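REQUEST FORM: STRUCTURE PREDICTION
Request ID: SP-0412
Submitted by: Lab K.M.
Chain count: 1
Length (residues): 391
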Amino acid sequence: MNIADIQLEELGAGVVKRTTRMADGRALIYYDDPDTTLGPDRAVDAREAFARPETATMRRDPLTGDWVSIAAARQNRAFLPPAELDPLAPQTPTNPSEIPSRYDVAVFENKSPSFGPALAAAQGDAPSGADAPQGLDDLDAPGLGRTRTSVGRCEVVCFSPEHSGSFGTQSRTRARTVIEAWADRTAALSALPGVEQVFPFENRGEAIGVTLAHPHGQIYAYPYITPRTMSLLASIDREGPDLFARILEFEQGSGRVILTGQHWTAFVPFAARWPLEVHLMPHRHVPDLAATTPEERDELAPLYLRLLRGVDALYDSPTPYIAAWHQAPVHRGRDTARLHLQLTSPRRAADKLKFLAGSEAAMGAWIGDIPPETSAARLRDAVASIPEVTE
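STATUS: Completed
RESULT:
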């Protein structure tokens, strides 16, 4: 076996980080569990090095000010392949997948990204290159037909080498390793030139649009502040800089709390849009996962696992969801925009989904199908049926 050139770094909770490169130059990072059974070596990616697609281009919608990335290379991504051709499994002689070696947790640059790769900075913090964004003021400027290169980064986070599962099916130790990886990648991506916001998330289930059954999530590093976060920052300006502290206090005094710990509380929000919607928030202000303490990460692992397993206990089959970690922008609102998870599912009954039709999709005017208090009571009972996560 050819041994890859590895850069080694020890992280928190006994996690070991091993950084290398794929055949085409993309970054590949292994995060080893503290109790890993793996050896220190990793195989070289011996595949033929094909050229990477050109960085996508984004176009500005003058009606909203939003930027839309046009990433045609994504049309060629894998779609529900059989287990023997799983592109996120360790490579075998018959499966030339993305990851050469057996692993615990692996992170790599997406082969067909919506953003990136990030461009090197010529001077200051702005990326260089053809038509690259030159800061937020440049992106906010008016005009028709405006385009920019979609600089940034899209990464895949593999939670396990197994072919099926999700974050919620992992062990407590493995969940803690993934959290350490999220925090580490948040810090690294935030430091890239041109990156304005970092977003870790997990899509789970074909009803959400997942094209790979392998347990994994993604991290997007955007060259702008996303529309959802711009709206959040405007709300903080309107409501006051202590908005998140007041929301947490308000929800903790309601009947919508699902579970709580020393550092985190999970609740169904007062104005929930989705049939199943849960927010998970730290008790102190932190802008992103990189700013959390070891103690906060230690508690998050079992608490989050129990929440996800409770979501799955609602019905006889796994529940589709989007688990979105909202983090403060890299350069704005870090003293006021608090890290929090928003977990949403369109599942409104065992055999029914909520589809975004006219009012929600066209006008952004939501109509809730289930009272948040009813949803909270059902979910609280489901979580209560899940034992404490100790392994």
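NOTES: The mean pLDDT is 93.
Reviewed by: T.R.
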